[in-house]
Amino acid sequence: MLTIPEYYEGKNVLITGATGFMGKVLLEKLLRSCPGVRLAYVLVRPKAGHAPDARIADMINCKLFDRLREEQPDFSEKIVAVNSDLTLPDLDLSSEDQETLTGSINIVFHCAATIRFNEPLKDAMQLNVLATQKMVSLAQKMKNLEVFIHVSTAYAHCDRELIEEVVYPPPVDYKKLIDTLEWMDDKLVSLMTPKLLGERPNTYTYTKALAEQLVQQECGNINVAIVRPSIVGASWKEPFPGWIDNFNGPSGIFIAAGKGILRTMRASNNAVADLVPVDVVINTTLAAAWYSGSQRHARPRSMLVYNCTTGGINPFRWGEVEYHVISTFKRNPLEQAFRRPNVNLTTNHLINQYWIAVSHKAPAFIYDLFLRMSGREPSVLVCCTPAFLSTENCINMTFKTNPLEQAFRRPNVNLRSNPFTNQYWTTVSHTLPAMLYDAFLLLTGQKPRMMKTITRLHKAMMVLEYFTSHSWIWNTDNLTMLMNQMGAEDRKVFNIDVRQLHWAEYMENYCMGTKKLRNIRYTFNTVLVVFIWRIFIARSQMARNIWYFVVSLCFKFLSYFRASSTMRY
Description:
Low-confidence stretches: 379-391, 520-535, 564-569
Structural class: alpha/beta
CATH topology of the largest domain: Rossmann fold
CATH architecture of the largest domain: 3-Layer(aba) Sandwich
Oligomer: single chain
CATH class of the largest domain: Alpha Beta
Strand content: 5-15%
Number of domains: 3
CATH superfamily of the largest domain: NAD(P)-binding Rossmann-like Domain
Mean pLDDT: 83
Number of helices: 20
Strand order of the largest sheet: 3-2-1-4-5-7-11
Distance between the termini: 88 Å
Shape: globular
């Protein structure tokens, strides 16, 4: 059997979602570890006045591609940006681009999707189901297609406790639902959404299950594989440990805990936190395409499903997550932290609400009040809108050993499975401190912001409670089979063996990665302000006068300081 790099040699690959978190890592890994790949076509829509080519050029300048840039300086010549919008008819492809793609593509990686859990059902259907349908339709026209990889989620069937590597029938037929939504207005769709979701917690998991059914039914003779990652986190090893480029997923919660804003959340300490590093997911995706593509003539045509999870192989629990995260940020503090990091988890709803009010809202209110009284604008980072929740032990340990600068208070997070206990501590640790802090800001003439931050945090926590309070059993037989089919060198280069993953080390690298990302964003904003001010000075006489006046004062002050320091008495 061909090795993975040998299989990709001379192949043309099409990637959707290439500007997203997973898509970037997929593109980088493909070009770096499979240097023989011919071209990588990426479907990109114009955004904020930037053409697809400009967006890709900007994307590949990030740190993620530094290693690839050193090893292959001309790698960008293999990337072809294609103007496309997955929500428009025919993907908004020009006739020329359609002809190019249908005539040359060998492998398709469909990674694009909305990751907003509570997206309105119509929007979620448009991005997760209808876009997939259009991609399948395009794939059916491809003359040289060898394999179509659909990236789903391990939570697509979260209404089941045991999830096998098969496609389960959804509660409704996706075709009938598409037809129904066409004539319904948004208000009616909103009313019927809870009944449609049933035991599923949100529209994201619901529509991803429908997309799997669509792929199974409409792919026909196409060689297909589905990869289902669980909670995708920072990189484990590649291109370097702890790489992350967003505050989605657990990352935003980690920052909230490190800042001392998050103190309590409803979760079960014993529930498995099924985090999976992004490089493991990408290696699985590339290996899945290799196996299905290289074996397409040697085995009966069937759609393979891979549960890319860690819980059944190397389990890590939410209580452990909390400990490591808090400890790391106490050792390496974040700038402008609200307070010392500390998080508590509880399963009791009422106790959780109590501690939200006491530990979140009350301190936020006090802090905003203090800023107002001192004549300053509140500077607390609003970073609490992620898609997944971190837990007690990892949060506490990581942020205590790696504290964030200017934290609101010392990191301390507690996970509580009892909803009543969690409600209590939410009131005590969140609501009351936030209210008091905002009151202080008002008294000092400043704009209160802490309650707004706490409110956003609580909304995120409500969305995530389902996932931090439950555990699932995922069968990973196909994943194990895939690993066994790989040669020794491939297993090293495309590592998917999470049995080797040391969680304490991974969580520390993860938290440090979120800290670096936050510092990079602050630096970028500072540089941007200076740049805009420089342009303003060049165009405005008044701005120049102000600038020269400030510089002159500074110069006079320094001259006076230098002169006074040399005076002899």
